[in-house]
Amino acid sequence: MENYPSLKKNILVTGANGQLGREFQQNKNNFSNYHFVFTTKDALSITDENAVKSFFKNNKIDICINCAAYTAVDKAETERELATAVNSTAVGYLAKACKKNNAEFIHISTDYVFDGNGTNPYKENDQTNPVNFYGESKLKGELNAIQENDQSIIIRTAWVYSSYGNNFVKTMMRFMGVRESLGVVNDQFGCPTYAADLAAVIMQIITSNKFVAGIYHYSNKGKISWYDFAKEIAAQINTSCTVNGITTSQFPTPADRPSYSLLDTAKISSTYNIAIPEWKDSLQKCLALLKLK
Predict the structure, then answer these.
(1) Which of 134, 161, 218, 227 is catalytic?
(2) Whether 34 is catalytic
(3) Residue 166's CB: how many other CB atoms inside 10 A?
(4) Residue 71 has pLDDT above 60, yes or no
């Protein structure tokens, strides 16, 4: 079978060096019926429409998972052109190329498309109203995907972390190793997402051979604040660093954050028969991997 990759479905994973992209790289050998094509911005500039067209023309892509994103939430307030190019314009190019080449398109979006004024977990059809430019650029990306290819799957996720890249978990561990105490925001609520779990869900969708277009929400199970998250990290790594709760107003940032962005995951769970892990269990798995590094 290895000698005939054309008999396998080819999966293009953009943003291959990001947290989610690295999880796909780590687990590619578990899916022998698929051939993975991993690209970074150096191998494929998704902000260049001609480059995207050529790539799809020269490579028989059956499925595209767009993990590429501009994720610097605060920097996006000033780097608007770049955020728009990656999070919005490029998404339209990929969606369009998928439609033209009969490839399935799966795009990753964010809880930050909501304003955080809700009190119940956000459903897929709830009103969007981003409070920062990052969220705005991601929302435009969703709209571009749907406009160019109404058969797209869009998965909104939240508070992504993994054993790869830069993220809240690794930052907390680093600070906890050198500080006696930490102040962490306790009035922003949501639920974290372990990138390995999200990658597994996406592969479950692909291998189900049941491609149901639309918007879906995915995060791990639970409802916590960033403070709760940090407290659990501290408990699991058994640090002596004290974690103190602070308000958003005590920790001003260039970009506003939604105060409540919990996602309702019932749709993806029922459509694809997905069992969603509890956030503490997934954190434990990630920390176990980080101890080995």
Answers:
(1) 134
(2) no
(3) 13
(4) yes
